[in-house]
Amino acid sequence: MARAPENRTDTDGAGANGRMLTTMAQRYRSALNAYFRRRVDPPHESEDLTQDVLLRLAARDGATDVRALQPYIFQTASNVLNDYYRRRAARGGAMIDSYCEELHAPADISPEQAMLGQEAMDRLSREIAALPDRARQAFLLFRFEGMRQADIARHMGISVSAVEKLIKRGMTGIASALAEGD
């Protein structure tokens, strides 16, 4: 006599992987959100970026085999952040999308001044986006994240001297491009 298949949960494979992902999400979600809130504007995008990290971990078969899980998770977060800024630069989006009353107090600015300021910001965004990947990354980490050059060197896996050269290359490239635009 044939038996009907039993409804039961998978105790290995996807079930175990799902439980592991749930555990990682519970353990690292708040730290990842804090990591992204310090690095993106507007800060509400931090939850989406955190979700991207968790999706990448879910897509990786055998994520539990990683020996140093926390550094792996935050390296994945760094990659997600780099992708985020790359997408924004490709879309030509401004570095700041939202209005904040404390930062953008009303001022007596003529429409011409506002237009000139917007054009300068657009030129700056384009010039940053046009930098080579490594120079742009070093420049953004140094100027916008406030990271020390030694920390950038460790983060990028290069020497401090190389970081200095990348930052200088970025700054001189942007300065000369903006000077040409005037």
User: How many strands, which pairing sense, and closed or not: the largest β-sheet?
Assistant: none
Could you tell me the number of beta strands? 0
Determine the strand fraction and express it as a percent band.
under 5%
Give the oligomer, counting copies of the same chain as homo and different chains as hetero.
Answer: single chain
Order of helices and strands: HHHHHHH
The average pLDDT value, as a whole number, equals: 77
Low-confidence stretches: 1-13
Terminal CA distance? 87 Å
Radius of gyration: 22 Å
What brief labels describe this structure?
182 residues; mainly alpha; 67% helix
Structure description:
- The protein has helices at residues 14-37, 46-59, 69-91, 111-130, 133-143, 149-156, 160-181.
- With 182 residues, the protein is an all-alpha fold.
- The longest helix has 24 residues, at 14-37.
- It is globular, with a radius of gyration of 22 Å.
- The N and C termini lie far apart (87 Å).
- Residues 1-13 have low confidence and may be disordered.
What is shown here, in short?
The protein is mainly alpha-helical. 67% of the residues lie in helices and 0% in strands.
